Amino acid sequence: MIGNCLVANSLGNVVRARYINLFLVIPAELESQEAINALRELVRIQGDLPGVQIVSRGHQEAIAQAGQLANLYLRGVHETVLTQFLEEHSEIIQRALGAKQIFFQPLLAWHEGNEDPSEAAIQPDIIMRRSDGQWFIIDFKLPLLTKSTITTGGHKRRRFIYTVADGVAQLHNYRVFFEYRTNREAAVSVLGDEVRDAQLILIVGTSENVDLTEVDEAMRPLKPVEILDYDTLIRMSVAN
Question: Which one of 90, 131, 217, 228 has the minimum C-beta count within 10 Å?
């Protein structure tokens, strides 16, 4: 059993620290009753419940949530796990991006502008509205922990790797959806108002594989999409 400690991994000059609240290892061959007895012996309730963090609201809560989100994406979980966590802890997005309203995975039917019968609707990961009225459409991709960079090619041929290019293409499909008046008007029943001039954000990668200079070079032939990595997202959340 390991509790209340940090585990640090290093590679060159990069260090990742992961907080362990409570970690139990039980041998697979252990009989059920033996496991229960061991748990009763090891996990004794003395004051605070083991494995439960109690923090005050505000900065401490933001740090605890940031650590939990980092633990998830550093484990390489699926995108759906990350988006579900962020939906359950929407204040992370509220703090990081100044959101006033957040709509998680809204299903919005095409009424105009798409003749493909296999695509009846769009479903962005997040559509949010800031307090100043600016709309944002946000999609999440994986942190790509095994990649040293999210781009490929040299300076003159810089482009995004497939996963990132796919995310950029998805976001522009959502942008096109809202260029049609019929779609915007129909979406009001879900979003409460018309989405106009939405900014596009793709959350992908980490601070270790997102080089902003390379991102700018890869974006040259594309319409603008903001690339935001997971590490920066949680730093913005804690800072705000």
Answer: 131
Domain count, the chain: 2
Most confident range, picked from 28-42, 52-66, 122-136: 122-136
Look up residue 9 and give its two tokens: 């991994």
Helix (H, G, I), strand (E, B) or coil at 1: coil
Query: What is each CA distance from 171 to 27, 50, 128, 131, in whole angstroms?
Result: 46, 42, 14, 22
Domain hosting residue 9, numbered range: 1-54
Alpha-carbon torsion (103, 109, 113, 119), positive or negative: positive
pLDDT (mean) for 113-132:
93
Angle between helices 59-74 and 230-239 (to 10 degrees): 170
Pairing label, strands 126-130, 135-140: antiparallel
Q: Is 190 in the same domain as 229?
A: yes
Q: Check whether residue 129 and residue 220 sit in a common domain.
A: yes
Write phi, then psi, for 151 (nearest 5 degrees): -120, 170
